[in-house]
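Would you mind writing out the residues of a protein together with its fold in C-alpha coordinate form for me to study?
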Amino acid sequence: MLRITILTVGLSLAIGTAAHAQISSMQGTKSERTACHSDVVKFCQTQLQVNPNDSGGILNCLQTNRAKISKACQNVLTSHGK
Protein backbone atom coordinates (compact mmCIF):
# COMPACT_ATOMS: atom_id res chain seq x y z
CA MET A 1 0.00 0.00 0.00
CA LEU A 2 2.86 2.39 0.76
CA ARG A 3 4.36 1.77 -2.65
CA ILE A 4 1.06 2.58 -4.31
CA THR A 5 0.75 5.72 -2.21
CA ILE A 6 4.19 7.00 -3.23
CA LEU A 7 3.59 6.27 -6.86
CA THR A 8 0.21 7.83 -6.80
CA VAL A 9 1.73 11.02 -5.43
CA GLY A 10 3.57 11.74 -8.64
CA LEU A 11 1.04 10.12 -10.89
CA SER A 12 -1.96 12.06 -9.68
CA LEU A 13 -0.12 15.35 -9.93
CA ALA A 14 1.29 14.66 -13.34
CA ILE A 15 -1.83 13.48 -15.14
CA GLY A 16 -4.39 15.89 -13.78
CA THR A 17 -7.64 16.22 -11.95
CA ALA A 18 -9.59 13.42 -13.66
CA ALA A 19 -7.01 10.80 -12.77
CA HIS A 20 -6.70 12.34 -9.34
CA ALA A 21 -10.38 11.68 -8.69
CA GLN A 22 -10.13 8.08 -9.91
CA ILE A 23 -7.25 7.17 -7.62
CA SER A 24 -8.11 9.34 -4.65
CA SER A 25 -8.30 6.37 -2.29
CA MET A 26 -4.65 5.48 -2.98
CA GLN A 27 -2.98 8.89 -3.13
CA GLY A 28 -0.59 10.43 -0.65
CA THR A 29 -1.29 13.56 1.28
CA LYS A 30 -1.55 16.91 -0.46
CA SER A 31 1.85 17.91 0.90
CA GLU A 32 3.40 14.66 -0.38
CA ARG A 33 1.92 15.18 -3.83
CA THR A 34 3.17 18.76 -3.84
CA ALA A 35 6.64 17.66 -2.76
CA CYS A 36 7.06 15.26 -5.69
CA HIS A 37 5.03 16.88 -8.45
CA SER A 38 7.83 18.83 -10.11
CA ASP A 39 10.18 15.85 -9.89
CA VAL A 40 7.69 13.54 -11.59
CA VAL A 41 7.09 16.10 -14.33
CA LYS A 42 10.82 16.72 -14.78
CA PHE A 43 12.24 13.20 -14.58
CA CYS A 44 9.40 10.79 -15.37
CA GLN A 45 7.83 12.14 -18.58
CA THR A 46 8.77 9.03 -20.55
CA GLN A 47 7.09 6.79 -17.99
CA LEU A 48 4.00 9.00 -17.97
CA GLN A 49 3.77 8.86 -21.76
CA VAL A 50 4.31 5.09 -21.93
CA ASN A 51 1.90 4.14 -19.15
CA PRO A 52 0.52 6.91 -16.92
CA ASN A 53 -1.37 4.35 -14.81
CA ASP A 54 1.77 2.43 -13.85
CA SER A 55 2.35 3.78 -10.37
CA GLY A 56 5.16 1.25 -9.88
CA GLY A 57 6.93 2.73 -12.86
CA ILE A 58 6.64 6.23 -11.41
CA LEU A 59 8.11 5.06 -8.11
CA ASN A 60 10.94 3.29 -9.93
CA CYS A 61 11.59 6.46 -11.90
CA LEU A 62 11.78 8.56 -8.75
CA GLN A 63 14.07 6.02 -7.10
CA THR A 64 16.30 5.86 -10.19
CA ASN A 65 16.60 9.65 -10.12
CA ARG A 66 16.82 9.92 -6.36
CA ALA A 67 20.11 11.83 -6.44
CA LYS A 68 18.50 14.45 -8.70
CA ILE A 69 15.06 14.83 -7.13
CA SER A 70 14.24 17.50 -4.60
CA LYS A 71 15.00 17.00 -0.94
CA ALA A 72 11.29 17.28 -0.19
CA CYS A 73 10.45 14.39 -2.53
CA GLN A 74 13.37 12.37 -1.17
CA ASN A 75 11.89 12.86 2.28
CA VAL A 76 8.51 11.58 1.08
CA LEU A 77 10.14 8.43 -0.30
CA THR A 78 12.12 7.96 2.91
CA SER A 79 9.03 8.45 5.07
CA HIS A 80 7.39 5.54 3.25
CA GLY A 81 10.43 3.29 3.51
CA LYS A 82 11.51 3.74 -0.10
